[in-house]
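Pilot study result, target chain (123 residues):
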Amino acid sequence: MDGNTDREAILSDVLDRWKAAVDAHEPQQVAAQFTEDAIFQGLHPYSVGRPDIAAYYDSQPLGLTAAYRILETRAPADDLVLGYLAVDFSFTDRPTLSVYLGVLVKRTGAGWYITHYQVSRLD
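Predicted structure:
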């Protein structure tokens, strides 16, 4: 992997697909951006796997959108990229929720997918 630009490109590709599915309120498509055994920590108790991830996003209100900015990247191994992001979740009926998101994306035979997702709310 050739540095930060490559890591950011990998993260952007995965997160752009995630964002498009979140913005379109397509829970199954959101879950499809994760590995089958992904660890997922939103703002509720953690879960593991695509079915629970789809259920989490299905429970989100219509009109929810996500805007992210990559803050830091690392490559702990050739097939892993770690990202630390700022994310603004916007709603139609309440103020925007700003959070920090740590993701670990993994290269599989089918491409890059999120294998760990953890939201932090820093007030």
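One observation from the pilot: The longest helix spans residues 4-23. A full batch analysis is planned for the follow-on phase.
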